[in-house]
Fold this sequence. Notes:
mainly alpha; 4 helices
Amino acid sequence: MLWYEEVGDPLDYALQAALSEYCPGPMATGENLFSHQDARNLLRYGGMRPDRDYLQFDCALSYGLVEYLCTLDVLHQFGWSPSRCIPHGGHQMSLNIAAGLGLGGNESGRVP
């Protein structure tokens, strides 16, 4: 997989949205966002496209598994597949959560 990652300040949703209009390939962001409220705002205002972009919320930094599950619920409400989630963080927690929840992979590698 190839994507354009972390294009600017993580809370600059206007920049993310503007770039999504000009970048036909996939983009990835979210590694510096930590709550389901952050995820909701990114999806509302950041121009992220569920058909090609990737979300990289780090399970360990996202206040643990319970908050990460809330984030996944928000993503579902916005029509995102868990396969578009590639948790940032190449540690065993992300790998295990990615495998257990059927996510698209993590920094350690793609989960089948």
